[in-house]
Specification:
Gyrase A, domain 2; alpha+beta; single chain; four-stranded antiparallel sheet; 84 residues
Length: 84
């Protein structure tokens, strides 16, 4: 569920910002309905920004951040790859 009028590209850009930017991401992979990422500095992750992007949930465990985006995960992951 994304805010009305928000494209997958805009969601991807917001997720990238919410994860602390390109420099903070070691890995990011789509998995069923989630983006699983390994970040360098978890303190740079902005869970509130990620939620405002319209994601279903955010789970942070150490350096691993899972962003639940739903069935559009592959499209959003492709858009993220282009931004990175």
């Amino acid at each position: 569920m994304t805010p009305s009028g928000t494209s997958d590209e805009q969601v991807a850009a917001s997720i990238l910002a919410g994860l602390g930017g390109v420099e903070n991401i070691d890995e990011i992979d789509p998995c069923t309905t989630r983006l699983r990422s390994l970040v360098k500095d978890p303190s740079l992750v902005d869970a509130a920004l990620l939620r405002r992007a319209g994601v279903f949930g955010v789970m942070i465990n150490g350096r691993v951040v899972q962003v639940v985006v739903g069935p559009r995960v592959d499209t959003i992951a492709s858009d993220l790859a282009e931004l990175m």
